[in-house]
Amino acid sequence: MNYRELVILRGGYIRNQTIPVIPVSDGAGEVVSVGENVTAFKIGDRVAGTFFRDWVTGIPTEKMMDTALGGGIDGMLANYVARREHAWVKIPEHLTYEEAATLPCAAVTAWNSLVTGGLIAGQTILTLGTGGVSIFALQFAKLFGARVIITSSSDEKLERARALGADETINYHTNSEWQQKVRFLTNGLGVDQVVEVGGEGTLSRSLSSARIGGYIGTIGVLTGFGSGGLTPASVFFNHLRFQGIYVGSREMFEAMIKAIALHRLKPVIDQTIPFAEVKRAYELLEQRKHFGKIVISHS
Ligand SMILES: NC(=O)c1ccc[n+]([C@@H]2O[C@H](COP(=O)([O-])OP(=O)(O)OC[C@H]3O[C@@H](n4cnc5c(N)ncnc54)[C@H](OP(=O)(O)O)[C@@H]3O)[C@@H](O)[C@H]2O)c1
Please, which of 99, 136, 228, 247 could form a disulfide with 110 given CB 3.0 to 4.6 Å? Predict the structure, then answer.
């Protein structure tokens, strides 16, 4: 499950207006049948679907972006799914199907944002909240040798983030001007990268949290789709780099899987809900009590 599932249920993102549609972009499972000309997979292989069926590599076209699962085309909330071979990747051996099912959207998005921002060891990133994208951003940033500042509305979740390697934590409820704390924690300079999942309500504070020449991976709308006080001057006077991130290609997914397999990184699953109780998974997502991911299981 991703926050996106709620947005689609409420009326959709652009290019995700197909109605009716089988929902849910992410899924993993076992290959039970292959077509005659398939060479990349055989029966019994363990696979996950790519978020965009047809974005394999490079810069996506409009047509490729029309193939987002569970939005533009049918998704993964199904017992059986048939796709061309370019729309699958093999999953790491150390992951269960439930763990691998968390990867196609949130993990690829976090990976894409950090890599596109050119993250290197010793840099500092800021990530907002403890949902799916942000927890993957925390895990990958630690893997890259970066310092991580993370915010949350809950001290208990911040404790869990520390246990995962977060270097600095800020409660954004008790510390509403959290960008000042970020500045303080970076000797007044600001962070190298922001994983901007908040949107309207967090954007201007994220801007104030970035260093001059810093990078903002523009990803989410947890607090709304508005501009959040963003002005051209606030960007150019600080030489900021804004990069829209829309999940990623199969090539990025495969690069990420290599890293996950090498480091035996485990996605963080908060709860696993049986397929028959899928409505409960939506309710849980809406309550925002989760840390990391909520997964729907067939077993
Ligand atoms: N562009 C893309 O390709 C892409 C891909 C994936 C996701 N997204 C977007 O990224 C966002 C996150 O997605 P997700 O699936 O990771 O969401 P999620 O798992 O549902 O995240 C929920 C968490 O967000 C945090 N949050 C809510 N309001 C916040 C605020 N004002 N400041 C800081 N944190 C806040 C809360 O963390 P605490 O409980 O710790 O406070 C909440 O538990 C969504 O807007 C989604 O649409 C975009």
Answer: 136
